Amino acid sequence: MWLFVSSFIVSQIPSGGPFKDFETLASASGSVIGGEDTDEGYIQGAGDDSENWAHGLTPALLWEHKDALLSTSEDDLPSIITNLTSQGRTSTSDWRMRPISPTNQVFISDIANALDPFLQGNAQAIITCGPSPRDDLAERLKFRYLHIKCSLGKQGSRELRSELSKVRDFLPKLAAENVRDVFICFETGKDFAAGVALAVLCLCARDDGRVDFKDMRSHVNKTVVRQRLSWIVISYPDINPPRVTLQAVKAFLMNGEYEPT
Fold first, then answer.
1. Residue 208 gets which letter from DSSP?
2. Of 139, 145, 111, 100, which Cα lies nearest the Cα of 126?
3. Which of 127, 159, 201, 208 is most buried, most CB within 10 Å of its CB?
4. Which residues pair with 107 in a beta bridge?
């Protein structure tokens, strides 16, 4: 049972009857019905906006280094987390050519991997996410390159919603030219890349992982969004898209803004 500031007083709860087996969880914040990004309401102060306070720490890094983190003073935690996240970026080779399972055609990758000779053929396309496009990729890939402009921070997440219409128009062109794989790349904003990947999967991936860029869904619901998001976070555990990015993608998909023109 959740209680918050506008609830009745805890002492008024009967001690017997249907309440005898309840655990009481008291919150200093209120529950906003229909708020934020949940079906049942949003608990203010729940701490789930980790992009604002976690300093880039991911669940995987937390559990891997929990002893060191728990033994560190609060003042020293930001510098320790910075060291851990930078080590994770330099030591992680998982960004290289690993698809979002169960698909084998949609990838999230560091932009450096987009320069790999493997991508010199005509069967791959690249979408970059960030403040500025890559002229070298545009020159090399021609119609197989798309840039999604996203400023850094929350402003970029808000910009993403309008930018996703470019993805809607881009994917059928790939099908017409027999492009098989799409690499969604980032320099600094992997969360934006995850948002774009989520849109691609919701539009083109079937429940068994098959991807068809020419046969986009005519309807996307919350169940589809949740399942495709689970594919991303399972395939890439250190990706944790912030709520504002997910809201932008869901608004684009579920308001029908993706329907072909």
1. T
2. 145
3. 127
4. 99, 183
Strands (E), the chain: 2-3, 25-26, 31-32, 42-43, 106-110, 124-130, 145-149, 181-186
Alpha helices in 108-205 (DSSP H): 135-141, 154-176, 190-204
* Burial of 222 (C-beta count, 10 Å sphere; 0-12/13-18/19+): exposed
Q: Is the N-terminal amide bond of 59 cis, ω within 30° of 0?
A: no
The token pair at 171 is: 């994917």
The C-alpha atoms of residue 32 and residue 29 are separated, in whole angstroms, by 10
> What pLDDT, on a 0 to 100 scale, did the predictor assign at position 83?
74
Q: Helix (H, G, I), strand (E, B), or coil: what is residue 31?
A: strand
- Of residues 258 and 22, the one with the higher pLDDT is 22
260 pLDDT above the threshold of 50: no
Residues 6+ apart with CB under 8 A from 106: 99, 100, 181, 182, 184, 197, 200, 201, 205, 211
Q: What is the pLDDT of residues 196-235, one digit of tens each?
A: 999 999 999 999 999 999 888 878 898 999 999 999 988 8
